[in-house]
Amino acid sequence: MRPLLATIKPATGYSRLAHIGLNILLPLLVFVLVRITFLPLALTLILLSKWRMFAVRPRFWPANIRANAVDIIFSLSLLLFMVRGVSPGVQLFWAIIYIVWLVIIKPASSIALVSAQALLGLLFGLTALFVGWGGAALYILVPMTGVICYLSARHFFDSFDEPYARLLSYLWAYFGAGLIWVLSHWLLFYGFIAQPTLLLLAIGYGLAALYYLDHHDRVSKLVRTEITITTVVIIVAVVASLTVNATNTVRALLR
Description:
The protein is mostly helical. Helices cover 76% and strands 2% of the residues. The chain folds into two domains: 1-107, no CATH class; 110-255, no CATH class.
């Protein structure tokens, strides 16, 4: 069951309009602060915007932090993308994405959109991790990947009231951390997305889609086969590119 505070929606009328206005204002302020390179204040604004997590008794704080973790991951990832933006236009683009997230995607409570929130948190969180700290040591990349995978999976399973949500989330975190432990030695990027991110996203999407369809009794043999084949094709393509890169590296060293 998701914490009560995480599911409270703003009132209608002027309160609703004020809430939307503040959600639009925050990304624009972050954009301006990034442009003038006042990054500590931009980070502070994002963290202060989550104050409602602590507007309850302390014993509810861990549950509220977990429920809002995907939002925090997404927000901090967009801040990093803005900082790394090569032009004002690119930075403004990320600010607009942030507005869409805060106004449309984040408030949604349907199972489909909550699942999308989890996948977006996984994608943006891992992308930001490797863009910002791709060259970091394994003792940083491995646990950070595990944390992102765990929080994304927990966000996904909590929307289904899955009784084994914690166990399944730990398994996904362990798998993600193990994959990074292996692949971080041969880190490749497709644009700005690292190959471990693409692999975890493909596998995660395939498993999430099958779980979602099975939960609604809409999974069929044909659908299961299509999702499985698509996931396997992406995995094979990524592994093949990794193999080619590793072979070229070995040849270069042997020359």
